[in-house]
């Protein structure tokens, strides 16, 4: 995905864009009734009084203003609940929720439709046929409001809940994992152990690497007749002086600017090109649940199961080499041991004194240890050994320590 397509995808998830488009549609619909009047035959049966349409529009305008205000307060409460009870890193997924955006957009669009209709109705823009068209549009809007309200009420029972938010994080992590499996190196070639590192292009920003425009790098490499080596992956923290890429020869100012523009740096990590971020966020949810203030080992156990599902996808990925789209760009390899650390290391640390968490963790690692290649299984065994060592030192009774040792020994 090019940088501009990625930016467009980010903007399309913003609530203001969808709300603005639906609101504009509501305004156009109210004005369209006056235009369609000319296309309706004169001998239409029945007439609609202006007062009848006006009363309906008044009801829609007043009720939608109240519903929109209520919906905004509910959304704010849900975001606050997710921030305090789950993790702040999961809040963007709630903000991008399509059901919430569609409901709020429908309410605002209906409100604007009613307001414009109330403004135009006394001016005489709508004749007899125009009022009839406006009436039918109003009935259709009422049907849309009813459907949106029913979906919104059902959605409110889950919005901001720990389990529902954790499921959103798992879905985002799974999507990112599948995308990375389809393009293991974002369409590039794997970075070799030894590569040309003589001509670096360094970062001039501080933040997280959110996106790499590999297409732009390939175009530059073909134009200049060089290879480009990228030692970073999306999700890396960069600062002034961090090497973004090494070029096959000394770059001029224009080439350096093209390289820097290909790397989008922001204040927060993104799920799109960074499958590790989903693992980190799910791990954070488990850590919050294991904190003394929350003390909810059940949520931590649930997260371990979700992490196991996501990592199973990665372990069972095809091992065949994928033909690179960008054969002159080399990207750093996504390592198995780093992904296992992101998923389980901190859970093993904070849940070391709870036998139920440790047993579930060992079962999950035992299941993962039967999958994947040698590198993946080795990373799993390393995490299992580290978790056992932490737990043996932290469990309060000898009985629990013996139970864990026996369980770990049966899985080796």
Descriptive account of the structure:
By secondary structure, the chain is α/β, with parallel strands linked by helices. It folds into three domains: 3-160, no CATH class; 185-266, Pyrimidine nucleoside phosphorylase-like, C-terminal domain (Aldehyde Oxidoreductase, domain 3); 272-324 and 333-411. 65% of the residues lie in helices and 7% in strands. The chain has 15 helices and eight strands. It has helices at residues 3-12, 15-36, 50-85, 91-95, 98-120, 128-156, 162-182, 214-224, 253-262, 275-290, 297-315, 336-350, 355-368, 374-394, 398-411; strands spanning 189-190, 199-202, 207-212, 228-230, 237-238, 243-247, 263-266, 329-331. The strands form two sheets. A five-stranded mixed β-sheet has the order 1-8-4-6-2. Helix 10 packs antiparallel against helix 11 (297-315), helix 10 (275-290) packs parallel to helix 12 and helix 13 (355-368) runs parallel beside helix 15 (398-411). The chain is flat and about 85 Å long. The model has no long low-confidence stretch (mean pLDDT 87).
Key terms:
five-stranded mixed sheet; alpha/beta; 15 helices; 65% helix; 412 residues; three-stranded antiparallel sheet; 3 domains; Aldehyde Oxidoreductase, domain 3
